[in-house]
Design goal:
The protein is of the alpha/beta class. It is built from ten helices and twelve strands. It has an eight-stranded mixed beta sheet with strand order 3-6-2-1-9-11-12-10, with helices on both faces. It has a four-stranded mixed beta sheet with strand order 5-4-7-8. The protein is globular, with a radius of gyration of 17 Å. About 5% of the residues have low confidence. It binds Isopentenyl phosphate. Isopentenyl phosphate binds next to α3, α4, β7 and α7. Isopentenyl phosphate (IP8) binds next to α3, α4, β7 and α7.
Length: about 260
Amino acid sequence: MASELVVLKLGGSIVTDKQKEFTASTETIARAMDEIKSHKEGSIIIVHGGGSYGHPLAKRYRLSKGHTDSSQIHGFVKTRQSMTELNKLILDIAIEKGLLCVSIHPSSFIRANNKRISEIDIRVVKGILDLHMIPLLYGDVVLDERLGFCILSGDQLATRLATELKAKKIILAADVDGIFDSNPKSNPKAKLIQRMTGEDAKQLVERIEESSQSVYVTGEMVGKLREISTAAERGIQVIVLNGLIPGRIAEALKGQNVIGTVVER
Ligand code: IP8
């Protein structure tokens, strides 16, 4: 079973309308679930991002800095509330589409230390997979030994789950076609990088960090690249694709050639 495992991350820009707070993209979620239902072979774990249910609140209450003042406690509570709401909405659509999904709340079984996962009871996820159900998780606010709490991105979570459970591949469904040599949202000449190694991904992160402006990719893509390089170096294939284009998630699940970026060791 383990070698067949795929971890699919549905980015926040896929499951929500990032321009409108607390607005889920229900049609896109439903289409993605249809693609998963009809093309999945073996086991799958679904992780989703926060989009407009998570990031505006996290920003408003400065949650990424950790616990620095008491007013943030309200923000922690509101963000957890909002993320469980989005997760429930996605869960309902998944079950309606016939996927046997079970929500697992990251903050209940994961702790971090300085923004990296330090404790995770992987048996919780494995037990659900062993019973042929689909674990449904998400980016969350979790307790942090050093910072009090922190934001755990769905990308870090997906990578860690894939590593612990020896997944075959990670599919990251974003709102762009993959990884580009410059920001495709601001540069129409940006070229899609179809293949790269984990080492290439690492070097790209270094280049972005060295340059004064983020000329290569969007800020969000930097975090993604860091996780990708870790996963690829551990032998997991990572595919970054555009989840807004119908059929791409299905093609990647079927192991077909898909427009996107494939990162391998
Ligand atoms: O959208 C972050 O997860 P991401 C979730 O995967 C929160 O980065 C709570 C902002």
